[in-house]
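can u pls check wat happens w/ 26Q
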Amino acid sequence: MPYYSENHFAPLVLSKPNKKLTSLKVLGMDKKSLLRNIKHYYTHRLGRDSNCSTTHYPYMALSFAVRDRLMERWISTQHSYDEQNCRRTYYLSLEFLMGRSLGNAMLNLDIDATLREGLLELGLVLEEIAESEPDAGLGNGGLGRLAACFLDSCATLQLPVKGYGIRYQYGMFRQHIENGYQVEDPDHWLRDGNPWEVERQEFTQRVSFGGHTEYYKDALGLTRARWVDTRDVLAVPFDTPVPGFRNGTVNTLRLWQAAATDEFDLEEFNAGSYTEAVGSKNNAENITMVLYPNDSSENGKELRLKQQYFLASASLKDVLRKWKSLNGDRLDDFAAKNCFQLNDTHPTVAVAELMRLLLDEERMDWDSAWSITSATMAYTNHTLLPEALERWPVRLFRQLLPRLLDIIYEINARHLAQVATRWPGDTARQRRLSIIEEGPEPQVRMAYLAIIGSFSINGVAELHSKLLVEGLFRDFYELWPEKFNNKTNGVTQRRWLAHCNPQLKALLNDEIGDAWISDLKQIQRIAPLAGRAAFRQRWAKVKRDNKKRLADLVERECGVRFNPDALFDVQVKRIHEYKRQLLNVLHCIHLYARIKADDSDNWTPRCVLLAGKAAPGYAQAKLIVKLINNVAKVINNDPQVGDRLKMAFLPNYRVSAMEVICPGTDLSEQISTAGKEASGTGNMKFMMNGALTIGTLDGANIEIREEVGDEHFLLFGLTEEEIKVQRHDYQPDLIIARSRDLSRVMELLEKGQFNQFEPGIFDPLIAAIRSPDDPWMLAADFTSYVEAQQTAAERYLCQEEWIRSAILNCAHSGKFSTDRTMQDYNREIWRLDPIRPQPPA
Ligand code: 26Q
């Protein structure tokens, strides 16, 4: 027996629920009660006085006052869920990119106007105070932000959905630029305290690693397994409230933090190495130290697999604990009442962990355990890049999670037997469909485990879902066509319009009322107004003010002045070759070359903004950042260019930066190689805020174009099918030679115009463009991209037409609300009943 003390956090237990302790007076939502509360926190809790001059403490006091109003609604929502013992969904994700909470909470509680006014009486400007809040950057990009938008929509739809994730001490790195290069800084987002979370030590879980499997006979003489000699880690939950929009519902995001158990390493302890034994606690606590800053899988990192299992195991144990507290030990109904949505393959080890818990801890037989597991798990895929599919070395699994590897082998054996029955003698197919990829270093294919263990598998846009079943998952589709479905992504209009674009919100409310905030389809009611000059004028004023706000940010951060009357052309997203920021740069160089060649009659002044983070180990992406900065420097410092063209790279792209960027954008760049971007969600934020898209037929761009109509979308580039065909005979050198424009651009690049004192640094980018194996086929789309850009420039000159298109983009963005996405998930996968909480007494 290992020497350990049980969870020392476990509190003493009260003999019965204490109703007196929890009966409380509901807090007022009026200005007077709010201000009283804020002042109370400022003085009595934070201990600050009139000499204190930072905005941090007013921010904290305000946040505590707002948080108090969430608490009572939170408790009553959770009571209603328990009382009704309703079916629930758990959204398992290694990433939740929540951004800031204060503005969202005030909007959803409907106290933002009251507070703005009240704070002014105290001589404080709400927007300035809100700037003190650091972003909760616990995600890389699209997948993590999608999880955050989903939570907002589920709370608004009053669906009993709980998020489970990891409380990283360090979120997504902060980026700054030195000599044009990206430099990473740690993001210690919790340093000044986080008023939006509540630690719940009482629900601490224990998670095991290492050890080995032991077999024994149970009381009935059945052979059973147990996982022994493990090294355990505690998982401590921190809960963040997730308020719905003006509806009294407050859901939960539960994030796990690793803590060492009090078991000391016995040998070290007995050898008298007390300090070493205590020091080794670090090992445990490291598990939740940092978010992996890759947005495609990083292969074989042991710590990452530990994070994945830590999340899966702690969350499943927590759900089983809660189940037993409400329903007792019987699990017959478990699958009818619970659903786990896996956000990509990252938490997929949950399939094997749920089997382990049911087999080894609950003593079920295999078939019962499997029927529960495979009826509760659902998997969402977010990528089409085969190289991004997660695989883990079998060796690592055996070492870290030996009992789970046993179970995965058993799942695989039974699965392959089924394949053999369906396609007798087809051993090639068996090899293709096996969870285990054979080779010198055998691997566990996580996507296959997810597909086999789930009752639903979905892609995130129509094209993506279609390509999945035709390509990557074709064999599985033949086996189980009924499991596969599409759920087109969305974004929450609460954050991405109502909160981030207050002027447009006011304009919309004035014209069509505010129903669109919880029913975005209503926004199409502004479509007829696009034909009214007076409305277009008001729209233009809002856009110009937002462009000024964005121009101020760019000037502050980049030292470049953007003229708000120019066309604001924006590409912000992770830096990735397939997203083709490089194509955008080639276009900028092309415009520069035209100006230098005095070819600028009827010119449309243009300000090009790029932003995004490159994975720290992705050399080619980092070089693209450097090129953007170098090209920008040449363009901005050339007096001959003047106001006709400006270019800037905004450092440290994050949720709160996008809140300023998307309202001020005219032209949204969505220019990935067709068939590579699963969906994209930035495209939807821009559209909602009245930008036109210049884009390929990729991901959700296709559906955006369908909704708004071809005339209001700037289409270019090869289709996915054309890319597939032309790939076989792709000769970029020839394409370059035949295009005067592209030749001129390549010449400038190749003669070192943008790296005068840094010879050769861009050679790898030049080589990529010229390679017949360039997977992203930049040269193939260059000419058509330049043409579409020229069309955009000409249309912008006719402001009346441009604004009409902008209004129609906003008007037709109704489909791209996550409210719609969540209704689709709920109708076809989760089947949850909305629950109205009892209003607090
Ligand atoms: C996996 C293993 C190890 C380390 C890191 C990872 C990892 C982490 C993050 C792999 C992928 C990601 C993120 C992927 C992502 O953001 N995908 C995007 O998801 C969006 C929401 O569905 C889509 O809109 C985008 O098209 C897709 O690129």
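The first strand starts at residue 88 and ends at 92.
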